[in-house]
Amino acid sequence: MNIEIISPDKTLFEGEAEVVTLPGTDGSFQVMNNHAPMIAGLKKGDVIVKANGKEESYPIAGGLFEILNNKVVILA
Predict the structure, then answer these.
(1) For residue range 32-56, what is the model confidence (pLDDT) as tens digits?
(2) CATH number at residue 59
(3) Number of domains in the chain
(4) What are the backbone angles phi and psi of residue 14, rounded to the nearest 5°?
(5) Segments forming the whole domain that contains residue 43
């Protein structure tokens, strides 16, 4: 799935990934390829992107998450 993590001043990550772990306002959750459409609020924490067997962590102060048709957009 295609992932985009966007902050007000720059794009933190853009690319393909297998799994994304997010700090949801009601608890941490993961999304994978072919996930149902969803919108969620995010709290302060780390967005963990797993791509090509490697994990990268991106700290955020909160924001919004959307997945639709294998495209994830995270506004942080």
Answers:
(1) 999 999 999 999 999 999 999 899 9
(2) 2.60.15.10
(3) 1
(4) -150, 120
(5) 2-75
